[in-house]
Amino acid sequence: MTITKRFYVALAVLFMATGATVFAAGMKVEGTPAPMSPKPDMSALKFLIGTWQCSDLSSRRPGPFNVTQVFSMDPSGYWLIKDDTTHKASWIPRDFHSEAKITYDAQARRWVWITITDAGGYSVATAPMPAGMKKMYTYVTQSKAPDIASYGPLVLTKVSDTKKTMTTSFTETSGRVVTAKETCTKS
Q1: DSSP code of residue 48
Q2: Which of 152, 101, 148 is nearest to 122 (CA)?
Q3: What does the alpha-carbon distance between residue 25 and residue 131 come to, in Å, rounded to a whole number?
Q4: Do 153 and 177 meet the contact criterion of CB atoms below 8 Å apart?
C-alpha cells in the first residue's frame, strides 16, 4: 500500500472511531433552532408601497429626467424593496434599472439601505432613527466613479402619504459640488 493510500485509510478509521465514540457516549445533536433577529418595525415605511413617478434634477444635467419607483415588501418581512427605472433622456442612452433593499438593524440601531444597479454600481448607506419626517443616510461604501471625490448624505423627506422628496450632493475631483433633488408622487 502506498503512503497516500495508508494516510486515507488511517483518516477513515479515525473518523469512524470518532463517530462510534460520540454514538457510544450518547451525545445528541442539538435541536434548538438558530436564533433569529426580530423582524424590523416597517410601519413607518408602509406609505412607500406602490408605484411612484419621480422627477430628478441634477445641477450638472441640462434638465430634469424621469424615474419610476416601485416599492414592495419582501415576503420575509425583513426588507422593503425599491425597484427603480431611470428613463431614457437626451443624455441617458437607455433605461437604467436599480434595486434597493431597506431594513432596520435593531442590534446596531440604524436603518440600512443597499443598492445595486444593472450598470455594476453598488452602495451601502446607513441612517439613525429619523428626526420627524426626514431620514438622512450616509454612505458607508460605494462603487467608485472616475470623477467623484466624495458623496454628501442622502436626505429623504416624507411630505405626505403621496409625496416625497430626496436631496443629495457629491463633490467632483475638480472641487465642484453637484446637487441633486428628486420629487415623487404616488400614482
Answers
A1: G
A2: 101
A3: 58
A4: no
The three three-digit cell numbers of residue 93, written as one number: 442612452
In the block, cell 448624505 appears at 153
> Residue 9: what pLDDT?
65
**C-alpha to C-alpha distance for 180 and 178, rounded to whole angstroms:** 7
Predicted TM-score (pTM) of the model is: 0.79
H helices of the chain, in order, are 3-25
For residue 70, give the amino acid letter. V
For the chain, which ranges sit under pLDDT 70? 1-27
The rounded distance, in Å, linking the Cα atoms of 38 and 21 is: 39
CB 128 within 8 A of CB 114: no
> Comparing C-alpha atoms, which of 167, 163, 181, 166 is closest to residue 53?
163
Considering the four listed CATH numbers 1.10.10.60, 2.130.10.120, 3.40.50.10490, 2.40.128.20, the one that applies to the domain covering 43-186 is 2.40.128.20
| Max Cα distance, the chain (Å) | 79
